[in-house]
Amino acid sequence: MVQNTITPALLAYSPPDPPLKEFTPAKDRAFFADTEKRSLLSAASAAEDLTPYIGTELKGIQLSQLTDQQKDELALLVAERGVVLLRDQDITLEQQHALAAHYGIQDRDPNQQDPNHVTIIGRGGNIRAHGHSGGEYHADHSFEVNPPSYTLLRLVKTPPYGGDTIFTSQTALFDKLSPTFQKAFEGLHGIHSSDRAYVASINGGGSPHRAPIATAHPLVRTHPVTLLKVLNYNPTFIERIEELNGQESHHILAFLREHLLQANDLTVRWKWTPGSVAFWDNRSVVHRAIPGGYDVTLREGKRTAVYGERPFWDPERSESLSQRLERLGANGHAIGTANGHENGKSEGLGANGAF
Length: 355
Ligand code: SIN
Prior knowledge:
Elements: H1 8-12, H2 38-43, E1 46-49, E2 56-59, H3 68-81, E3 83-86, H4 93-103, E4 118-121, E5 148-157, E6 165-169, H5 170-175, H6 179-185, E7 189-193, H7 195-203, E8 214-218, E9 220-222, E10 229-231, E11 238-241, H8 246-261, E12 267-270, E13 277-281, E14 285-289, E15 300-307, H9 321-328
Parallel strand pairs: 2-3
Antiparallel strand pairs: 1-2, 3-13, 4-15, 5-13, 5-15, 6-12, 6-14, 7-8, 7-11, 9-10
The structure holds succinic acid.
The site of succinic acid has 7 residues, from strand 14.
């Protein structure tokens, strides 16, 4: 069990790198996509929506072979569907780095040793144990001023069972709140802190290269591509709600955690196989890698991500998913796209066109 207390190792440790400065990333590649995603979807043999709210599996396509146009359309599909999943990918690590570079500047987790990727391993233990860390839902390092936007994880080896990852749509999580709670949460800020991760890392023998930080981000954010309202909740890193008193903050965060854990209908669960990939939008999705019950040495992956914009809240330009569907007179629940249409015929809702 990793100690979450002040230890001599913690007191002696001094991280080598300065804090990151806020910056404005280049325009999101999804804005360069054909809203129908014709090039990408016609190259795939199938694009199957796995659940109503999140997750599309692309079949018959290799990430290593994508044209720039198809990469942009993939970004749009990820922004719309939260996570795009693929199997049997032949992409090499170098090609994965190049693909990430198409979407922006490679981000670096404070605990990331290689500047270009994180090596993801299996997680053991009992998720219910006191102080168990690593199995909680999270968006990756949301405490950064510029948290990641697009994140790609490719597993190179996988156990025969166990180690699945669950992805949950924060667009849908916001949408499922009552209008009263939606209004109450809009305009609030969560304080996202890396304190606990920093302490656990050093006490576990790690050497984070940056000091911990705490950043206030909107609790409801506007997704820059879809312009949908997204709950920006993160049980791993949010410590409190800035505008609330202590008890109020404590109970609202407890409610939000229950809201998230209750959301099996807003979730997709991915069983990994060697060479499979999950490409998710870290701005609108939380995920959890389910720990325990398998041989952790059999799970290994490479994660690449790029810095996104500073999360923002633009009430004038954004709407909830239900408002969007009502305005468009659309049936059903899906945010958009492929819904099982073969060979690229998509009847879905495009983010920056049909929306
Ligand atoms: C992560 O938390 O980014 C890794 C997810 C996983 O191991 O499936």
